Structures are given as structure tokens and as C-alpha cells.
């Protein structure tokens, strides 16, 4: 059985992320992850006790990035709506394979208590950016949801950089109240 070069945990995480993104989390087995690396399932279990543990570790960088974004917006170091939208879009792009792998698997998202966490994080971001007025939050939901959908729904090989400004412009239009300057 071949040995993994370098950091085995990172190699396993990268292989799992690739398989989750292409086939979905629920449809990918740890056996498939192990086989893609040419290692035994036991070797994989040495590093990760379960598929959920592996997913949780894959999710942590995205959770950390989301927390940093909220902290910067709350602190006012990232205050311009366009800059916030750009940062959010970039965050979605960095984690697009992971988002693809779990977005269609509501069972795992529910089991790992991800849905309430993601919703709470987005509501917090919406409120920090636009307040708690429902009509303002509608615009924020459309803006951030549109950014996330663009990052996830375009094919993996599509250069999002080629449409980044259009995506952010559209989100900014959605976020801007009717009749406001620039709308």
C-alpha cells in the first residue's frame, strides 16, 4: 500500500473535498476517499474517526473566515457595502468546492447542526450591514444569496474573475434601497 507524501491529514482533506464537491458529501464514502489516495480505509480512520469528523475539519476554515468577516464589519474596519460584498464573494469562491459538496445534502447539514449556524451567521451579517428592518434585510438576503449562488452554480472551470465585478455590481444593486443615490 503506498504511503502518503507529506502531511497525510491534508492529503486526505484535499481528496475528500474534491470527491465531496464532484459527487456530494452524502454520496461519497470514506472507502472512495481512501481509494483515491491509494491507502487503506484503516489508514484513513487513523486520521479521521468518521466522515462527519472529516467534514467538520474541512468546514472549520470557512467558519473561521466567516467569523473574521463579521468581526471586521462589526468593528468598522470593513464598512463600505461594496467591500463587504466583495469579501463575501471571495470567501464563497475560496470555499466553493466545499459549499458544492454540502449544499445539496440537507440531512448532513441538519445532523451536524450546520443550517442554524449558517443562517445565524448570515442574519448577523445582514443586520450588521443593513439593520433589522425587514425590507432592508430582504435586499441583503438577495444580495448575499446571489453572490453565493454565483460562486457555487458556475462550473468549477469557469473563471469567476472574469465576471467578479458584474456579480458584485448586481449584489450591490440588490442591496441598495430604491431611490438611493447610485441605484
Automatic annotation (TrEMBL):
Pfam families: TetR_N. PROSITE patterns: HTH_TETR_1, HTH_TETR_2. The keyword Transcription applies. Residues 29-48 bind DNA. The lineage of its organism: Bacteria, Bacillati, Actinomycetota, Actinomycetes, Propionibacteriales. Signal peptide: none annotated. This is TetR/AcrR family transcriptional regulator. It comes from Microlunatus ginsengisoli. Residues 6-66 form the HTH tetR-type domain. Keywords: DNA-binding, Transcription, Transcription regulation.
Amino acid at each position: 500500500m503506498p504511503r502518503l507524501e507529506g502531511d497525510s491529514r491534508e492529503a486526505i482533506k484535499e481528496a475528500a473535498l474534491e470527491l465531496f464537491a464532484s459527487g456530494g458529501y452524502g454520496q461519497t464514502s470514506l472507502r472512495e476517499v481512501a481509494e483515491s489516495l491509494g491507502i487503506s480505509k484503516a489508514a484513513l480512520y487513523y486520521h479521521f474517526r468518521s466522515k462527519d469528523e472529516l467534514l467538520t475539519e474541512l468546514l472549520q476554515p470557512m467558519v473561521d473566515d466567516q467569523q473574521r468577516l463579521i468581526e471586521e464589519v462589526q468593528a468598522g474596519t470593513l464598512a463600505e457595502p461594496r467591500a463587504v460584498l466583495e469579501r463575501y464573494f471571495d470567501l464563497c469562491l475560496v470555499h466553493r468546492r466545499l459549499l458544492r459538496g454540502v449544499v445539496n445534502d440537507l440531512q448532513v447539514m441538519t445532523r451536524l447542526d450546520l443550517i442554524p449556524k449558517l443562517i445565524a451567521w448570515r442574519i448577523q451579517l445582514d443586520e450588521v450591514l443593513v439593520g433589522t428592518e425587514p425590507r432592508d434585510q430582504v435586499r441583503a438576503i438577495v444580495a448575499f444569496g446571489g453572490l453565493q449562488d454565483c460562486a457555487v452554480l458556475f462550473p468549477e472551470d469557469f473563471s469567476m474573475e472574469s465576471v467578479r465585478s458584474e456579480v458584485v455590481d448586481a449584489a450591490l444593486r440588490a442591496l441598495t434601497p430604491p431611490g438611493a443615490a447610485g441605484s
